[in-house]
């Protein structure tokens, strides 16, 4: 009698499970996820992959077309466009990641505390979010950046302030429903503190909603962060940033050298579409798991 080893069967089961996961994610979304991974890897490894220093100026070769020396050409001061593109992803993708992380942390904390405390504190939080919602998020960010000053810190603080009310409202609605559950009242009667109840029981139930907000909000943060740099209120030259590269490439485009503007615009478009598709698909999967 032949005995089949369980290890090949387990390995086969894991492969089928992985294939099933990829199939549920969808072909287009899988391609988008691969693009996101490539962009993140290229951004993280920019010091290794970049052929030149992104700030190195070559006055002898300004606005050179794509060649073996400069694969995407050079800008008006002779800086390598590919190197600036790789380093520019660090500020665009990294800045967006910082924004959504801080927004999720602050928004989730305030939402859970408001739902738990209730009363006048909850009403005050909701009125404060109403005030911020009365103005477009990007407009609020531009106003705050004009006060804080240009750079990367100003836009991050401004966009965090603009995005946090959305997270507070969405997470609060789920937290309110969870706080009203009978088992929460039973935990109160047993003497469990409010912080323990919120951390051990309320927080795990609102985390799927928080992940949805992070996944969907990442692409919006990228666009708004680049828009602020495009307007000249974010990072300043000679810094590398996709929005700044698009703004600087406008003049060269009028002179018949669209390489920088096209490279930065296409990379930005590809990143936004890819992260949006992946974020929306993750949101759908998490929502399906909750239902």
From TrEMBL:
Keywords: Cell membrane, Membrane, Transmembrane, Transmembrane helix, Transport. The chain crosses the membrane at residues 22-50, 93-119, 131-163, 210-235, 261-283. It is a multi-pass membrane protein. CDD domains: TM_PBP2. SUPFAM superfamilies: MetI-like (SSF161098). It comes from the Bacteria. GO terms for biological process: transmembrane transport. Signal peptide: none annotated. It is found in: Cell membrane. The keyword Transmembrane helix applies. One of its GO terms (cellular component) is plasma membrane. Its main location: membrane. The keyword Nucleotide-binding does not apply. InterPro entries: BP-dependent_transpt_permease (IPR050366), MetI-like (IPR000515), MetI-like_sf (IPR035906). Residues 89-279 form the ABC transmembrane type-1 domain. PANTHER family: OLIGOPEPTIDE TRANSPORT SYSTEM PERMEASE PROTEIN APPC, PEPTIDE ABC TRANSPORTER PERMEASE PROTEIN. Belongs to the binding-protein-dependent transport system permease family. This is ABC transporter permease. It comes from Microbacterium rhizomatis.
